[in-house]
Amino acid sequence: MAIIIIQNVVPFLGYIPLAGLSITTIHITVIIAAVILGPRDGALVGGIWGIIDWIRAFVAPTSPLAPMVFTNPLVSVLPRILIGVVAGWVFIWFNRRHKAELGLTLAGIAGSLTNTILVLGLIGTLYQHQAAGFYQVDLSKLMPYLLTIVGTNGVPEAILAGVLTPLIGTALLRFKHKS
Q1: By percentage, how much of the chain surpasses pLDDT 70?
Q2: Three-state secondary structure string covering the chain
Q3: Range of the domain at 33
Q4: What CATH number did the domain enclosing 33 receive?
Q5: CA-closest candidate to residue 170, choices 2, 45, 3, 32
Q6: How many domains does the chain have?
Q7: What is the pTM of this model?
Q8: For the chain, which ranges sit under pLDDT 70?
């Protein structure tokens, strides 16, 4: 949880701002917590991130869209909790089949995509008009626009999580088993 707080406070450590969007790296910390500690603790760590995001939307938003959408805990908190749940269970399922490395990779990808798809899906569903105005697109083109963001932001974030989760997770799992 301390790492999540640091990533939220130190500029460029948890969010890399790009033209109205932010590439997120904090989800990787949640995913690693979920595979090392389990889905329940991963959900707790994700929930802490979500609560910090929710508070930040009121006091120091990370983007101009944040005060509109991240003040709703369905958008700011729930997807972050579900990162830990999904990543933790994907890892458990594969680890039971003696495919821990594959489980780490897929947990990273699944956790990352859970965040991206839920956040953007909820924005597109709950805040259609505000999001269309913010992104300056016609309402009928909002969902294709959001899917483009999934491709340009979400896919690279998922790849990064799929690479870093096994690299970091393997070492931490070895340390955990030795303890």
Answers
A1: 97
A2: CHHHHHHHHCCCCCEEEECCEEEECHHHHHHHHHHHHCHHHHHHHHHHHHHHHHHHHHHCCCCCCHHHHCCCHHHHCHHHHHHHHHHHHHHHHHHCCCCHHHHHHHHHHHHHHHHHHHHHHHHHHHCHHHHHHHHCCCHHHHHHHHHHHHHHHHHHHHHHHHHHHHHHHHHHHHHHHHC
A3: 2-178
A4: 1.10.1760.20
A5: 32
A6: 1
A7: 0.90
A8: 19-22, 179
